[in-house]
Structures
1.
Amino acid sequence: MPGFTCGLDATLRVIAGKWKPLILYFLAQGGPIRYGALRRAVRGVSDKMLIQQLKELETDGLVKRTDYKEIPPRVDYSLTPLGLSLAEALVPLCIWGTENMAEVTRVFALREALNGKIR
Amino acid sequence: MPGFTCGLDATLRVIAGKWKPLILYFLAQGGPIRYGALRRAVRGVSDKMLIQQLKELETDGLVKRTDYKEIPPRVDYSLTPLGLSLAEALVPLCIWGTENMAEVTRVFALREALNGKIR
DNA sequence: CGGCATCCATGGAGATACTG
DNA sequence: CAGTATCTCCATGGATGCCG
């Protein structure tokens, strides 16, 4: 249903998905990155999820996939200008997390103690 | 599991939850806001979800809840300094969404046409 | 990568407490 | 009966992950 309540709402839908923000972030770190390297960078993803989210980012015009059609297969991913601009908007979140990591860690440890598992 | 892979990862876990970024954003718009008003601002939330996410934000030290212990009930919510700093980090995302809303809308319309439903 | 099984977040409906 | 704030039970859909 087109029609977002505000700009933030629109952005959130674009980066909806457990790994998309991290993918964008790592793609922004440097030039084109090969699939395997990306897989290693985004720790914890399964191949299925990584492929799936990359494909969505690609159809959304944020990521560009290049298949060199070589043997052995060689494929790399990079950001489109649109994707780059979004990745840049993520930088403050990254900074916030870095600056407050101790605090966040502490709070999450508490939750873990209370609930058994986090959320 | 304490131990985040990076700052962005830490932040993402804090704002995990469909409505948390929006809640933080609206709380940052002005002074303390009453529950009912917040409910109206965050369009689409159910009472259950709003309460639940507010409680998590509160235990995470991002939101301050004030209960005036009156009858009929009167409660309002505001940001802690930590919450405010996070809300400020969300501003670029909001701007990005606003600037690219047309593009985002178009892309999502395509997805809708292909899949029947989004994602 | 496609199926299949699973698990958790989301959401709806109803209940509560108290007053005007 | 209307209004405010919150909680609990239950249903379900969609995201996630494992396996071939």
2.
Amino acid sequence: MVLEMLFDWEQRVAHMGMRDRMVSIKDVAALAGVSDRTVSRVVNGEGLIRPKTKKKVQKAIETLGYVPNQAARLMRTSRSNVLGLITDVVSTTPFSTDIVRGIQDALDGTSYTLLTVNTSADPAKEQRAWQVFREHGIGGVFYVTMFHRHVPRDTEFPSTPTVLVNCSDPEQAIPSIVPDDYQGGLDAVRHLVERGHRKIAYVVLNELLLAADLRGRAFFDALATAGIEVRKEWVVPGRVGAIFADKLVAFENARRILNNPDRPTAIVCGNDEIALQVYCAATDLGLRVPDDVSIIGFDDFQVITTGIQPPLTTMALPYRDMGALAVRMLLDIIAGHPQKKKHVEYRCELVLRNSVSSPRLPGARSANST
Amino acid sequence: MVLEMLFDWEQRVAHMGMRDRMVSIKDVAALAGVSDRTVSRVVNGEGLIRPKTKKKVQKAIETLGYVPNQAARLMRTSRSNVLGLITDVVSTTPFSTDIVRGIQDALDGTSYTLLTVNTSADPAKEQRAWQVFREHGIGGVFYVTMFHRHVPRDTEFPSTPTVLVNCSDPEQAIPSIVPDDYQGGLDAVRHLVERGHRKIAYVVLNELLLAADLRGRAFFDALATAGIEVRKEWVVPGRVGAIFADKLVAFENARRILNNPDRPTAIVCGNDEIALQVYCAATDLGLRVPDDVSIIGFDDFQVITTGIQPPLTTMALPYRDMGALAVRMLLDIIAGHPQKKKHVEYRCELVLRNSVSSPRLPGARSANST
DNA sequence: TTGAAAGCGCTAACAT
DNA sequence: ATGTTAGCGCTTTCAA
């Protein structure tokens, strides 16, 4: 039976390279004994239909298994039910996929579907993507980047409603949604300070990233506000190198800082990947988390944060919500509703787990037995 | 300037809910002084065109910025340049996203784009997805699952060319591509045996997963072949509970096994997440990897495998290649080429890193200083 | 090598 | 409350 189905494809495909003629609105009309226009009205829920007629038509639709032809509809109305999604994923870093999921989920109740293109951060591919979108008469585009960043100043966005997610243009003329990395960084450090830490180190994200800049400034500002002096030797890089080809060096650097009687009681990590390495560095030295060192991450990348023991306290990036908001914004724009805010910075929320505690009282020595 | 662009959208959208009339083949024809049919020939590279005519047309296309209207083309030909992608992602597990990337990358040189739908493993949504695909006249679909599994026996696949990726139907009537978890499991254990291990534990994947079954059988078979007796108390669950709501228990279980003078010298982990917990368990006990325990993972989930110290030796799931193969198969089917193989099991390759060494000589005591 | 005519399935605009 | 007509942009078919 299923085998026949397969055979079917091969037949159809071999013979003519096309599927059976679709059952059209006319077929439905004929069966229901009404005009095609009436069927169209029913399909699009236009009202001004006698309930009885409606029933008849719906039954005909049912028995014929009619589905509307979006291509025809688009041709007539120039209103597509497809939105474009551009991502710039590269390599195996699975970050920010939750943005896409947030978008997909939010689109779920609507009539919209997503045409997705991945540019691998290649400008040529990106241009091609926009062309594909034009070819398909797409009505709006989500432009999603893997890392929080500015879009290059000379990027030309076609005149299709577009929402930037996880990135923004320097002029902030294109609607955009980004995480508030600065606030997140501030709150992360504050959390440590509130728990009594004053000897705080910082293992920095790749400094080429905008997030690194934002979170880094937050670190310095938060310490300044708390009246804590920054120990320069305790601010070390966690990743170095070109952005899609960088190298994790958090382990070595954290190990060096920690391997010293005068060591920090808490470490702020540029993100959860770095936090993982800092963990490894701590345990490599026989130090316990959080008893000997508190560690706080950033991103809430759950494979890491809920996978390690003890689970990692971290600053969550509001990816799903950003995706949901992007959908609301884009649909609003398409519907012609003016936007109050063109650029929104979405709040990061602290996720409390078990990698942060109060620092041990000065003088007490680390216990390192099971 | 960019602001004007925005204003533009709002104008257009508010006034009529549609974009400017597309520049059509006729406009090009008029400018080039030829018939529309001729333009069509050029656009589709049909040959039988005088080079001079071709030039003229191409120039007109250029100056007008013409892009073909896929909707119109589809209507006429019933051959869509869009393929469907169904995924069943749920929760925050980022597994198997590389399959999707493999597909996207392989599609890159072609004229095809992807319409993606995420079902969240909800049958109603899945059915809706197929309808959406029909509405868009989609020519083929990739059905990608997050976990290697069988598709439920009663799943009805519409008569659209479909390739199952990371799953298969029990009858293997639908073309499908899955990883060879059994071979992978076998090779993983063999690697340990070759390094001299005979005291080998196994922290099992959620036993509801097909991969767990396959990898599990491989574990027992490999030990049997090597003439090693299985220690039942060293085979423990790493995850328990319903599939999309399971709980990691690898840490506790690994810790219990390891916290014993008579402990395994190597641990096979159901996947890399579990391996991460086993690491934590080992270091929690002051044990060193790989000196005191060797650990081998499964999946090559790089955030983990290259993030922890020492980096994790693991059995890689050939996700990208599976995606690429899926593209080849689907395009072949659409083109009417018969398939030699309907069901392929893709080989897993061992990735050597630093979490496996030979077991310490019996009698030598563990050193646990820095 | 090129062109003319027809029609894919749908809905806007206008009847009735 | 329902029907008629026309045409969106393209390619197929046939003719020149």
